[in-house]
Amino acid sequence: MILTVAEMSFPTGWIPPYNTLVVAAGVASVGFAAGVVGCFAVLRRRALAGDAAAHATLLGVGLAFLLGGGRRDLPLLLGGALSTAIAALLALVLIGRWTRTRDDAATAIVLGVSFGAGITLLSGISARGIPGSAGLEQFLLGHTAGLTAADAMILGALSLLTVALVALFLKESTLVAFDPLFAAASGWPVTLIDYALVVLVAVMVVVGLPAAGAVLVTALVVIPPVTARQWTDSVGVMLPLAGLFGLVAALSGVAVSSAVPRMPTGPLVVIAASILLTISLLIAPRRGGLARWLRSRRTVAAWAEGRLLEVALRLEAQGPFTREQLLAKAPGVAADSAFKRLVRSAAIEPVVTRAGTDAWRLAVWGRELAAERSRRLAAWTEVLEVAREDARGHLTIDVPSPEAILGAARMKAIRESAAAARSASGPG
Amino acid sequence: MSTTSAGLEFHDVTVAYGRRPVLWNVDLTVPGACLFGIIGPNGAGKSTLLKAALGLVPLAGGEVRILGAPLEQVRGRVGYVPQRESVDWDFPVTVTDVVLMGTYARLGWLRRPGPRERSLAAECLDRVGLADVADRQIGRLSGGQQQRVFLARALAQQADVYFLDEPMAGVDARSQERIFRVLSDLRAEGRLVVIVHHDLRSVAEWFDAVALIDMRLVATGPVAEVLTPENLRRTYAGRLDVLDEIGRAVAEGGRTP
Predict the structure, then answer these.
(1) Cα gap A399→A379, rounded to integer Å
(2) Which of A54, A305, A392, B149 has its CA 20 to 30 A from that of A127?
(3) Domains of chain B and any CATH numbers
């Protein structure tokens, strides 16, 4: 890895506090903006197009460096990066419109070709040892240690500008991202809004280059929105939350890399972002894997217990029953543990009581539970018959009370129409 | 039906995807204030006809006029219910958010929906019977409820001409009844409702007039006149055996508008 300018001028790796602070603030706003803008890349399913644009930036960096006569001027280099990023997006649009190449293939082609060209150009520049070319490779994987306060301010300002634009056009962007057909039918310039959003993504990809590098910057744009989506069902919350996750990822990546000399920041930023993502995928309420797993376990357990009670009520008509008898009549994966729970619950509020070594009968409370469950099942069956949508929308495997969910008035109407249907089709 | 000016006119409309024509010289006039069905088999170009009217697909030839004017002049008076599958229902918006989108065109750039738009949205949700799920994320609804959210959004557009693309697809009987009742109310208020529809059984019960489409216009007019076994055979070209039966049922039980 090549030393950056900053490391050469500060051999000890020590940077004045002012510079550190400004760079930190700049990187924080870059991370925030990448998360916010990335939401629309993710919601509009343009994440891969963003990746193609990111890989195309290297070519622009190289070209701008040559055109600028070998100056390592960050705004100039980023300007070059933006122009090839947008050129790559244009290429995607043109390939989609004029050839029969499919989207994914087109994206892979543009990404590969532009990245290959960029690497070739940068290697050529570096092989010729053009003065000042040292450090261009930092755009590959990111290296914020080389940033000056002035650079960081530019990055920060651009980031805040893109966030402001997204906030300003939130209504329009959400509409087009959710339902472009409806938006077009009601007269909105969908293509224009779409392109504007894609250009904003390209700008963020370019602004994120120093922090994450061409190869990984898409992760900074894509991971925080996906992380945020785990925690909320509202675009209005998802955007700032994604920004926050992006900010945390970018800052922690940069902090760790600054402690380790010559460590590129991009991989560290991505690792930080993916730690947040992994945690969110696991523990987010409702959408998280853990919540889903617990939910499915709980419903299976509830169903098994209900089935046992239902069967026990029938068996009890002939006196006490054994565990074998009960489980034989109510087989299922969770039946065994459900029986254990019923027995254990006897200590608190008896559901089943012991009538011998292996002889059981339902306690008063158990009988009530079983009766209530069969009442609910019967009621839901009526709902299914006359108001199928209500049942399909609300009935869950733990058999909730239909009155509690649909309301007593609605249930009364359903019962009446079910009774009417019965008497109409019945004999007589 | 007594109407002074036509609600919707197609003049020799031809639409092609590449060199393949999807609609061929469709010449069709729909009077105002009625429930009008566009009926035909899968791939007949029904949705394309609707999209042509809304300017969502380029015309290879011909022209469309809505309320006697080109689309650009009357866009604000046109409401649209796209096919339910055309959007991602996992999108992080609530039922109210989606209905508010119906007010966006009137609001224009940058202006956000305010109290007036919110109360309109609530009113529209009430009309389709979804007031109690107003704050729910749209993915946590049944198919029929999702379709009614789209209908409520169209109501919030406060249009004079409504276009609905397969509003009954994957919808249970109760939602279907509710949707048809709202659409009938719109007609009673003097609006034109154009529906792409594929279920022949409900046509006679609800529609005033229909157009049978299979790439070309086969027949158009009042339901009882159009849904003859002969016309259905020409439209479905032997794709359904039960057509004679349905045609007879329509002829016997259909109401004449």
Answers:
(1) 10
(2) A54
(3) 6-253 (3.40.50.300)
